[in-house]
Amino acid sequence: MTRAIGDVILDVQNISLSFGGVKALTDISFDLREHEIRAIIGPNGAGKSSMLNCINGVYQPQQGSIALRGRTFRHMNSRQVAEMGVARTFQNLALFKGMSVLDNIMTGRNLRMKSNLLLQALRLGPAEREEIAHRQVVERIIDFLEIQPYRKTPVGKMPYGLQKRVDLGRALAMEPQVLLLDEPMAGMNVEEKQDMSRFILDVNDEFGTTIVLIEHDMGVVMDISDRVVVLDYGKKIGDGTPGEVRGNPDVIRAYLGVQH
Amino acid sequence: MLTTFPRLMRDHATQRPDAPALREKDFGIWQTLSWSQLAVLVRELAGGLAHAGLQRGQHLIVVGENRPRLYATMLAAQSLGAIPVPLYQDAVAGEFVFPIVNAGVAFAVVEDQEQVDKLLEIRPQCPALAHIWFDDPRGLRHCDEPGVASLDALVAAGRHFNAAHPAHVDTEVQRSRPEDVAAMFFTSGTTGHPKGVVHTHASLIDRARAGARFDKLTEREEVLAYLPLAWIGQNVFSYAQWLTCGYVVNCPESSATVGIDLKEVGPTYYFAPPRVFEALLTSVMIRMEDASAPKRWLFRRCMALARRVGPAGMDGQRLGLPDRLAYGLGNLLVYGPLRNTLGLSRVRVAYTAGEAIGPDLFTFYRSIGINLKQLYGSTETAVFVCLQPDHQARADTVGVPIDGVELKVGADGEVLVRSAGLLKGYYRNEAATAEVLSPDGWYRTGDAGFLDAQGHLKIIDRAKDVGRLVGGANDGAMFAPKYVENKLKFFPYIKEAVAFGDRREKVCAFINIDMEAVGHWAERRNLPYAGYTDLAQKPEVVELVRDCVEQVNADLAADATLAGSQVTRFLVLHKELDADDGELTRTRKVRRGFIGDRYQVLVDALYGGRASQYIETAVKFEDGRSGMVSADLRIADAKTFAAVRSAA
Predict the structure, then answer these.
(1) Which residues of A touch B (CB under 8 A)?
(2) Are B3 and B178 in contact (CB under 8 A)?
(3) What single string gives the DSSP state of each residue in B430-451?
């Protein structure tokens, strides 16, 4: 692979997050380099999704800071984060089931629509030109994800594996610099996982998008990620290349347990 | 007047420069390439190929789905007097080795990464293969294998070359003569290595024109190109006839969107092998089963009417006023919308060939007002030998010999053909050429058949497959395996069938169920199943298949000559027959001998009277991995019927 891993693009420093007395994350630090695929792994309840939610502004951590391209923020809402080029997909899909694939992906263009509601409703000149430009981007994504046969199919009628692809498509429509994927392969069969892995690698390769990925399937994680962060009970217990992480005794203990 | 394909293309570009030549759906929109744009593209590609060293008489392989630039590449190769060799895009890598080595191919133009990967995989076995160009750069941006480049690069190189040598391509186009070799098609071959069928510009153009005259094709036809380029049928309908008639060829977005694209394009001239028509009908029937009761009732009533009066109407007979009115109403309520749903509402002429078509299937399409006809031909005859005239289409014949065809039936029942469209020979295989081409120009088709009283050709089976039963109740009776298999396959629940019986005392069969149709049937009955293998062995499914087999037997009993071919025992196979496992040819014909050998234990169990048989089979998956499928197969008996002697 010829893509060059660049400088640090996202720097997470000493993040702690608690809900009342429950400590979801304790003092987590890691960084993300441009163009890399970074996996976050850990057992159920380890705090992986909470971590993603902190990064894209859904949760406000009590302590610590997150810096995106040098801009530090502690209190930012998800819209502001999205405007800074961070997109995400969801573990339990958050698509509009009754809308077509095309319209769902089009919603990902929302932040980039300039014309106001009135112009759009009346289909006046500039709004129409803008719509065509957005449609072009959406069509490229449809082509990229190979979902042409379903363009006009309501998302709710599609098989789960394809819905996951649409979810990815909508995130891509934002043309993000950083893409957060929350268990993109949960509930998929082997073939669907292979397809999804290929799409993730292609996104990374073709668009140079930096990717943070939560995944349970160790085979997939080890195959496609450049570096892996391991969480357990809200604490970071490992960080490094797949090879390093695999040999880490703490990680082995968290995943396989130890004999007492 | 005889000519060559590049000259035909240039004529269109001069006479109707802005008329559309090709359309391709790209990013959701149909993009048009006019004849003049095509001419420019072809000239640039030809320049690029010349620059890379492609010379007169050399071969170039083309692998991929129907893409405008692959069509342009074939024209570019022909412009230089080189010979394009389209290969099946779904073939596994190993299958490319023989054609490439056989013809010493150094140049390849392919669609995408998938094909590039396959060629790179076999490169060590094909040292001559120096250049590979790809149309779609996706996933290949960082490919630095020597000799692999994009078609864009080839076009750019061509521009430079043409600027430096402005006359080269044009001179080469003028140098080509009609009797020069135009293309080579590898026949999938049910045994041994494939054979390269060599055709000249003259032979292809002669037949393309004869077919066009027969059906009065014009430049206003719309055609959807969705079958493999390597198959001569596709090549004639969307290349040879495209260039002779000058109509528009539409390339679908991908193989998965063909159904949608068919509807959007609304072709006027349509060609499909029976399996495509069968799949279309199956999808309609499945959707009808799910429709509400009033709709189902309406559909049943209208289809009953269509079956009764539709075919007569298509045959040009005058219907009585009540029938005309009722059919008109049916057309408004059911047939018209159905044709539209199928994407066939503008079809003026539709053909099916390649395999025999089930009579009910054939009648279904004709009865709803689609002018579906059959034709007879093969790769070696450049397709057009026999065609059915409008109003004379029959399910059991394949039409009359058309313009320029002489046809006779040999002493052993084999059909012999002589025409200007015959192959020049098999490539570097004089023995095989001599076997099929007699010195006085007759081609042995290998099909057993006869001309009926109306002069229509009727094909029974492959001449070498027609066998005899030996011993038992029907000693000496004729056994036509394909005839039996086709009857079985007409049931929507049965996808493939393989009949055994030659030199045996009775007929037995392997059945492949149609996963979609039977799966749906099972779901409606709340019958749980885990996959194909599990579903195939459900007692209910075996019963379902038994019903089908017994209906076929009843039907066969009515035919005195084939009454002995009734299926006495059968089993439902544990895996779907697949071309990747060598069980089907790439055109999806069953390789009976191979299957018989591979599943010898099952054949023995059928004839040995066993009630079940355990089997384990290695299978190859699409991604190249292999695995095992095992099952304990039930073997069932089917009722047979006494032959009905016709009164005459």
Answers:
(1) 1-2, 135-136, 139-140, 142-144, 146, 148-149, 151, 194, 202, 205-206
(2) yes
(3) HHHHHHHB-TTS-EEEEEEEEE
pLDDT at A1 over 50: no
Query: What value does the mean pLDDT take over residues A89-94?
Result: 83
Rounded to whole angstroms, the Cα distance separating A248 from A232 reads 13
Q: Does the beta-carbon distance from B138 to A202 stay under 8 Å?
A: yes
Tens digit of pLDDT for each residue in A218-227?
888 888 999 9
CB of B383 within 8 A of CB of B375?
Answer: yes
Tokens linked to B267: 């072709």
Place B1 in a pLDDT band, splitting at 50, 70 and 90: low
Percent of chain A, pLDDT > 70? 96
- Global pTM reads 0.83
Does the structural domain A1-85+176-260 have CATH classification 3.90.1200.10? Answer: no
Closest Cα to residue A233, out of A21, A48, A89, A11?
A48
Question: Complex ipTM, two decimals?
Answer: 0.80
Range of the domain at B131: 5-207+223-241+248-254
pLDDT at position A35, please? 92
Q: Where are the domains of chain A?
A: 1-85+176-260, 101-170
Share of chain B above pLDDT 90, in %: 65
Q: Do A148 and B257 touch (CB under 8 A)?
A: yes
Q: Does B253 contact A139 at a Cβ distance shorter than 8 Å? A: no
Contact predicate B231/B203, CB 8 Å: no
Q: Give Cα separations from B209 to B216, B235, B420, B423 (angstroms).
A: 10, 14, 11, 16
In which residue are the tokens 């449809």 written? A142
- Residue B328: per-residue pLDDT: 92
- Whether the CB-CB separation of B134 and B116 falls below 8 Å is answered with yes
pLDDT value for B191: 60
User: Is B260 close to A149, i.e. CB distance below 8 A?
Assistant: yes
Count of structural domains, chain B:
2
Instruction: State the CATH number of the domain containing residue B592.
Output: 3.30.300.30
